[in-house]
Ion transport 2 domain protein
Amino acid sequence: MGGKNFPMGQRKPGRHRRTVEGFGGVKIALLNLEPSFWSDLYHALLTISWWQFWLIISSGYVLVNLLFGLAYMMVAGVANARPGYFGDYFFFSVQTLGTIGYGNMYPEQTATNILVAFESLMGLFGVAMVTGLAFARFSRPTARVLFSKVAVVTQFNGVPTFMLRMANQRGNQILEAQVRVTCVRQEISPEGVEMRRFYDLALIRSETPIFFLTWLVMHPITPESPLYDLGLHRGNIPDEDVIFVVTLTGVDDTFSQTVHARYNYQIGEIIPEHHFRDVILPGRLHERVIDYTYFHQTLPDKNELNP
């Protein structure tokens, strides 16, 4: 019929389309890739949002009771259920699935008792699985790290320096914290192949034993830096597809578990010839005051950056 024949054992490519979030919040469409929700259901139920999780659980709960309510109605072996009234059979299924107790309605036939036994078994498995999933979602360690909305390029010790700012939003500490900044650039190789290249930026301080308050992450733009040819140290904003990926890992001292955080900066979110406004204010004796009102604010440098 004019279609292409595929060898035995190979399937014709599908037309599946799935959208994921890439670097910088850019939506990436994946074509001809089999959907992975059902093939990795446990991971999907752990990573979806809470409202999606409860929507799936609630929909499954209602669907199971609808199916069993229909089965009880077809068997017609429930005492005191009004004939032909689906609501009685549905709520009988709800009571059976939740092992609540029947009250006025109870099974009175062998077929109905078999359905009751099967639904009760499903209820036990369902409660165990939903409880485990909910506990896993609640107990999953997370880090609440505040990243500055922009990054800057300013002078530090006489060297143009790429800077961003982070803060721990919780009152606890992140131990053995490590930060990594990667520059992702779209390049064309000498052979004419277009690809994404990853460049790790050397930081003045990439780790700290305790991350409690704020952290100014700095990368000097020297001639050896991957950012030197971008011209950021000269006040230029290149018209290129460049993304800065910042990742933080450490150990939460409350749960003694590894936590991580990630943030992306587009090239348009880099402000040359600016520096961050100071957030540390004078306080009482032996007191440090940090005002997060100015956390994202920048100020222009007094002098232009050296070329």
The first strand starts at residue 17 and ends at 21. The domain at 48-139 is CATH 1.10.287.70 (Helix Hairpins). The chain has four helices and 16 strands. The mean pLDDT is 83.
